[in-house]
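Today's session is about reading a structure prediction critically. Students often jump straight to the picture, but the first step is always the sequence itself: look for stretches that repeat, for charged clusters, for runs of hydrophobic residues. Only then move on to the predicted structure, which in these notes is written as discrete structure tokens rather than atom positions. Here is the chain we will use throughout the hour.
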Amino acid sequence: MRRELTIERTVAIPLIYAWEGWTKPEHITRWWGPKYWTATVYEMDVRPGGIWRYSLRPVNGDVQEAYCKAVYQEVVETLRLVYIDNFTDKNWTLVENSEMYTTVTFEEVMDGSKLRIITRFNSIEELNKADEMGMVQGFTDAFNRLEEYFISKIGGKS
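Below is the predicted structure for this chain, in token form.
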């Protein structure tokens, strides 16, 4: 059974900015999450064993804030991030069966950077639940926001 969700996108920004967008709190808070959501980073230690604690909340407040904690497994600068992401409560206690084994790859291409997110779930039920929550649209929105943020900041890939 397929338990993976793969989202791939080429963004019109240089590889170094795509990487920094994913690994620096001052950047990721500007684009992470679906459109009309805001991200808050409480901790971001990008190294194997390092922790990334963040929350996402809708601007209009119509849905409860989501808290997440990720533990980095592998960090290969400008090429790959591997982490296990979990939903938590607001006290950072992990929600049972919420593990998302996530690999993000970065590849320089002629038009900018090709980004790929592969998220593996423990069960087909968890994958279906993520799909119902709008994870595909959320990642699509996030890629759009990443590209827009850096293009407004640096002018895009020249």
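Discussion point for the tutorial: The two ends are 42 Å apart (CA to CA).
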